[in-house]
Amino acid sequence: MPQDDSVVKLREIKRIYYKPDGSILVEALRGVDLDIPHGQSMAIMGASGSGKSTLMNILGCLDQATSGSYVLHGKNVATLDDQTVSTIRGEEIGFVFQSFNLIPQLTVTENVEVPLYYQRIPQADRRERAEEILDRVGLTDRASHRPSELSGGQQQRAAIARALITHPSILLADEPTGNLDSETGEEVLQLFDKLHEDGLTTLIVTHDEQVGQRCQRTIRLNDGVIESDTLNT
Question: Mapping DSSP to helix (H, G, I), strand (E, B) and coil, where does residue 108 land?
């Protein structure tokens, strides 16, 4: 795999949680090496407690590794100060959560605009970009609605639009179909397929084997290490 084509490079990533007395509570990750090329769709799978969520949080700059190297788009995240990491998280990484995490008081358009508000993008530019993204995910006719007026699938598509508004380098999704029925979940997965076809690097944490098989590559974690790394045909 060409090194200069990697959006993400992890080397010897360890994440240890300690008890108040300084003794080890759990070794959540125990030396993970991982390269994610630009444009790849990847699934991370494994039993509860395998390290999936910890790995996702480190990739998303929500948590910091105890040791090891994490290079995102050429920047070694581990060596940067908190403010710079926060900026990178806002600009380079899109997040999609199982529970949508939309703000109830805001319209769909306003929810989608939120990341740009924190980047101090002018209001007119925010609105233009939000309208473009909502069209891309098929929610133009729901732009003025509030989350409570949307179906679960529509809420998840709004959450995906919010994640895409910054044109991130990588889209991270944590069980994105976990709260959806099978038909609605399929619609959301078709949207992920389209985003991948358009060249976006996507990573989905999932328990669902069928979701894993839709991705180009499946990583399986077990007890904090990569148990298998498979390219799907």
Answer: helix
pLDDT digits (tens, 9 = 90+) for 168-183: 999 999 999 888 888 9
Q: Token digits for 118?
A: 């924190």
The count of other CB atoms within 10 Å of the CB of residue 138 is 13
Tell me the whole-structure pTM to 2 decimals: 0.90
Domain coordinates in residue numbering, the chain: 3-228
Residue 49 CA, chain-centre distance (Å), reads 19
* Cα dist from 183 to 99, 124, 128, 186, 190, whole Å: 18, 36, 31, 5, 11
Percentage of the chain exceeding pLDDT 70: 98
Query: CATH code for 3-228?
Result: 3.40.50.300
What's the rounded mean pLDDT across residues 69-84?
90
Query: Tokens 């924190």 — which residue?
Result: 118
